[in-house]
Structure prediction request, 145 residues.
Amino acid sequence: MKKILLLTLSFLFLSLGLSAQAPKDSTATTDVFDVLSGKITVKQSPEIRSAMAAHIDRNARKAASGQGEQTFRIRIFFDSGQNARAASEAAAARFRSLHPGVSVTRSFTNPFFKVTVGNYATKADAANALKSIQQEFPTAFIVRN
Prediction:
């Protein structure tokens, strides 16, 4: 890595030296990438290329299906009151009508009824969705799945 950096810097200084030595009335400039083209070769074994391609493919499938190591969802309802069951059903129905196509999951973990929506591969994706969801459900928050 140091050799490549030194080689790049030396070509950069060489190209600057060439353009500095040009006559002042000349409009010709030397592009550093023109000087470097064809000078650097990267030798890489086929095993590394195939391993990297397999890694990229696995990660792409995980992100597309939401089956990654860690996914994020948005909790829009969390309550343990006497009418929490009915309120969770109402919250789920309201969300389905406002956001068709987004998954909605109701669950009960004694003593709490919960309504969780979406399935986001990254926390950033969940945060973007949370901004619009909080307009209808102000107490919504992100949870790890």
In short: Residues 32 and 38 are 12 Å apart (CA to CA). Helices lie at 2-20, 32-36, 46-65, 84-98, 123-136.
